[in-house]
């Protein structure tokens, strides 16, 4: 079993402002002496762990978005000939784990079983709820506290096992994150551009005042980013109490999210969603290293005809050079190269998730 | 003396100074606590394994050669957390950010990093060192936990390439004996100095900053004019990882311009 799983991704974004600094400008960093675009690691992690994809990928695809989870449970309990009052109490206990419940209303008897917001329920969670409901009907009893906690155990466990938890007040609950995420940095130098924009007032007939109703300014830049993730599989399995199956699901979910989910900053202005163009996954026990140094000398789009192909060549060359000089840096590898139509996401996920 | 020399390079690094809260500064060279932490991670010693951590902290003396100091990067960092809603528990980060959206408050902080920095570290055993240098070397090649440059989001971007350098008169000669293998492709590996291409892209790595603990003579004979050294106190000798406490230690500093 390999201890480390490393993921190297190249993702191209059109003009966007994915991750802002205190001035509202896209974040930058110097590398090789040139200013680059940057997306911070915490921004990436937030993007992935809040994505629907991350949660649904834990089991099969397609979760359910609903406020009516409680109503559903209640109806099942009633159909199972549970008394109305009991059914309501048990439902509240179960649905309340997924979100805060609404307040009771006079003329809507079941209003207090509804969840305030739309919640996302994964197929696995729906399964667990169904199983518990059936058990309660069969055994004619209220759910126990531990059973209720179990309803969301997997999602909670995976989130914390991958990304860690730090509670200063009770260090015994701290969990060391099994996943390391680097700041994503553009492979080329970048100049942040200013967009000066105006908005007109549709009801202003221009007779008295011909000016704009609003002027503003927004900063943006386009970039091809190199991102790097390193998962310590051994630590992940340990964090998940030895559940290898769940660990594999977690790795698959994270990988898929990293490939397909983009940071959400200023989406309404730029709609800059992007999938990765190239992914290299590596497994092995050797000391992990990112391949960012491939872009220490920036890729120059004026010299290069095919920007993405050149960036891919640079990373492959860097990987090979490291192997040549220092000995093999990984045991096995798997590639996904969109421009050459090599590899598939399914193969990649099977490779990382064993 | 015998020393284990290895290289620390990554596009971003952060060598924390004592600071908790709004401003998290970085020093311009690796702190002892960060290096000991890196060794502990490689060896698979958990943060809360107080006894083994103690032994590691007391067992080794260090010297650092800063090859490229790089640039300072200030990162504006925000964290959103919701306040609590009655009895409801947020079970995942996703819950906090999506179910708790109406109640999110923002915590601001500013974090510093160094970019384009490259340093060498020399490790020497003291009495009661729990691991031989060769064991540490093996652990660095196949580490148990993640290795990183001060912050978990700052991975290594080149092999550490640890070399066991034996029978040296001092730290300086050990640093000179270290074979820099090239990091960038098509670099020409030369006489142990930094390969030309690496050298060019890391920006003027001609000046050297040296830091070491112990006696002034541990570093070199007097040809480097040790009288020019500065001796200062730094609060980075880990005392307890669990309680996050650090003790002061004395450190010498020597600046050599022009590639000494």
Q: End-to-end distance of chain B, in Å?
A: 21 Å
Number of helices of chain B: 6
Q: What is the N-to-C order of secondary-structure elements of chain A (H for helix, E for strand)?
A: EEEHHEHHEHHHEEEEHHHEHEH
Outline the low-pLDDT stretches of chain B.
Answer: none
* Class per helix and strand makeup of chain A: alpha+beta
Largest sheet of chain A: 9 strands, antiparallel
Largest interface, Cβ cutoff 8 Å: A-B, 62 and 61 residues
Shape of chain A: flat
Topology:
The complex is a heterodimer of chains A (354) and B (260).
Chain A: E1 4-16, E2 28-31, E3 34-39, H1 41-50, H2 52-56, E4 64-66, H3 69-79, H4 84-95, E5 119-121, H5 123-139, H6 145-150, H7 153-163, E6 179-181, E7 184-186, E8 193-199, E9 214-232, H8 233-239, H9 244-260, H10 267-270, E10 276-284, H11 307-326, E11 332-337, H12 345-352
Antiparallel strand pairs in A: 1-9, 1-10, 2-3, 3-7, 4-5, 6-9, 7-9, 8-9, 10-11
Chain B: E1 3-13, E2 15-16, E3 23-24, E4 26-27, H1 32-43, H2 50-59, E5 60-68, E6 71-82, H3 93-98, E7 104-125, H4 133-141, E8 163-165, H5 171-177, H6 196-201, E9 208-212, E10 230-240, E11 245-256
Parallel strand pairs in B: 3-7
Antiparallel strand pairs in B: 1-7, 1-8, 2-4, 5-7, 5-9, 6-7, 9-11, 10-11
